[in-house]
Amino acid sequence: TIGRAGLDAGAAIGQPQAAQQRLRPTAAIEKGSPQEPTSSQTTMAATTAAADAAAARTAALQKLQARSAKRKEDQEALRKKLMLKLYLEGLKTKLKAKGRESTKTEAPATTPQQSQHSQEELTIRGDGTRESARACADVLRRHGCACLQTSLDSAKIERCRVLCEEALETTLKDADERGLDRTGLKTKEIVSRQALRFDLVRGIADTEPFSALAKGGPWCSTVRQALGVDMKLIKSGCVVAMPGCPRQPVHPDGKHLFDEGDHLPPHCITVFVPLVDMSGDLGPTEFYPGTHRRDCPPQEYRACETGDCEGVAFTSAKAGDAVMFDYRVLHRGGANSSTRQRPLLYFTYARSWFTDATNYSAVSLDD
To answer: In the prediction, which pLDDT does 361 show?
Structure first.
């Protein structure tokens, strides 16, 4: 009896399970798999996606145009701000100069002509004081060039001279091996400014004592007086005029910041540091004082630009002295008629917002 009941109960329990198993295919059919979309639905979805993509592109373009317009507005605002800042600085300097002149008893000096300048009046003895730095910066602002006599250690000067000589020899050898013409070199490492006149960067800038001089040379106080405490170093290297190097054409290294307006204070200054004592036959750089000014008389500027008038060359400068000049002043390297090289270090400093990208190439000897 017990066994019979157990079988009946098992049948009763098993029957629903079997029924469920029979119903599963039907349920699967009722639920069904996703139906394939029709052609009209596919077309509608593609049209919607294309419209959304077009709208996204339009929005991105509008955003880009708005950003470009805002950038132009910011650039114009910055230009005006910088122009105003420089103008106010120049006005402040002019007022200070007038205040000093009013305290003197002698008659006011007239604007000197180019021929009235001498290297003696443009040379300041650098004693490391703030007064000498101010005096040199004042000469630099008014005349566009100045020479600061320093007392650099002779061992440092000689080390820099040897370093430049070795770096030039190695770099020219590499250029020759690549079949490059020395008279037309223009790479990241070396530029031929003229036949037998080379502007070299490679193997110098990151070495001592060169890098220490770039950051803290005795001329840096004068440059800060002229450019501000936030001035920066933008270029450095050495220039070597070989024996037989001809005289350069007269040129400025850069132009005025703006095409019109009042004269502005310097925005970029280069410092030449000769590594040998200067003399006339070595061809030291000749400067034309006053040509950095916007109010320089046009006839005088043209006479200097064509080399029809005599400039000022610091032939008395000693090794280690600092010859500084405004980027805008007219100048030219002299002819080296001696049998010796004329090496000099150069350091170009600028206001924090200025960048010069015109004097070097992006091509490298190592490419």
So the answer is: 61
How would you classify the pairing of strands 145-149 and 123-125? parallel
pLDDT band at 203 (very low <50, low <70, confident <90, very high): confident
On the CB side of 94, CA atoms within 13 Å amount to 10
DSSP letters for 30-50: HH-PPPPPPHHHHHHHHHHHH
Among the listed residues 117, 89, 73, the one whose alpha carbon sits nearest the alpha carbon of residue 257: 89
Cα 301 to Cα 5, 288, 305, distances in angstroms: 128, 9, 6
Q: What does residue 2 show for φ and ψ, rounded to 5 degrees?
A: -60, -40
Residue 40 tokens read as: 């009209």
Percent of all residues in the chain with a pLDDT value above 70, rounded to a whole number = 79
Residues in the chain: 367
pTM, rounded to two decimals: 0.71
Residue with tokens 């000589």: 165
Q: What are phi and psi of 243, to 5 degrees?
A: -55, 135
pLDDT in tens, 228-274: 999 999 999 999 999 999 999 999 999 998 888 889 999 999 999 99
Q: Which of 228, 232, 258 is nearest to 76 (CA)?
A: 258
**CB-based contacts of 326, cutoff 8 Å, min separation 6:** 140, 144, 145, 266, 268, 269, 292
